[in-house]
Amino acid sequence: MNLKSLIRRAKEATDDGARPADDGARAAAAEEAEEDLDLPALTTPLVSEKHLIGSPVQSVWLVEDWLPLEAEARLLRQLRRHSSDFTQLRGKRTARYGGDPGPPFRPEPLPRWLDQIRAAVASATSTEEFPPEIWPNHVLVNHYRPGEGILPHTDGPAYFPRAAIVSLSSAVVFDFWRDHEHAASGSAAALSLLLPPRSLLTFTGEAYRDCLHGIAARSQDE
Predict the structure, then answer these.
(1) Cα gap 103→41, rounded to integer Å
(2) Residue 32: its pLDDT value, please?
(3) Number of helices and strands (H, E) in the chain?
(4) How far apart are the first and last CA of the chain?
(5) Are 101 and 55 in contact (CB under 8 A)?
(6) For residue 178, what pLDDT is reported?
(7) Which residues neighbour 113 within 8 Å (Cβ) at sequence distance 6 or greater?
(8) What pLDDT, on the 0 to 100 scale, is given for residue 42?
(9) What is the CA radius of gyration of the chain?
(10) Above 60 in pLDDT, residue 17?
């Protein structure tokens, strides 16, 4: 075998050996880029008086079509990629971001893609009822399958004085009861709201402090 043949074989072996490593590096770089993938620029509607639900439960706002379609698609894609973050609980799967709500609250940095949503919620709710100095600092992602739900409850001090809920993928009926006695009576909810996909529900005041909220465990809403 002449020198040229030896050089050619050595080059082919080097190229063949390098390809898997190169492919692996490209895949790792693509995965890292996907991890850091920003959401589209979020120009979301501001919560205003026209979104106020009013009686029978006070201090509840609902903004339909709040989140752009592309932002919803990327959020769902990220959540599927982070499926290992979810824990199966009774009636739902839950992932917690931003730390342990406590008490005491132990904050942790949010992933960038959730920090963008946090900033959009803060911007949309910068009103007298939601002063800008109260910055959202925690994200709880609940995944409900058909037939799953959550019993009437309050959020207590964990998220006081307000909560904001962004709905993804499908619609759901969200119920409010006036108090514990009302919820335990078996009577109909004081307020039932259909939350469409990409909507923003936010509540404070009486709705947060006194009322209970929950989602009925049923396969479909009528």
Answers:
(1) 34
(2) 44
(3) 5, 12
(4) 81
(5) no
(6) 94
(7) 37, 38, 39, 74, 75, 78
(8) 63
(9) 24
(10) no
List, for residues 20-63, the tens digit of each pLDDT value: 445 554 544 444 444 444 555 566 778 888 899 977 899 999 99
> pTM higher than 0.90 for the full model?
no
Strand, helix or coil for residue 116:
helix
Write out the E strands in 178-216: 191-195, 200-204, 212-215
Residue 125 token pair: 């709710």
Alpha-carbon distance 83 to 144, whole Å?
14
Torsion (CA) 27, 33, 34, 40 in degrees, nearest 10: -150
- Tokens matching residue 184: 């335990």
- Which of 183, 88, 197 lies closest to 142, judged by CA? 88
- Report CA torsion sign: 186, 191, 196, 198: negative
Rounded-to-integer distance, Cα 197 and Cα 211, Å: 24
Tokens of 2: 């002449």
Exposure b/e, 31-41, CB count within 10 A at least 16 = b: eeeeeeeebee
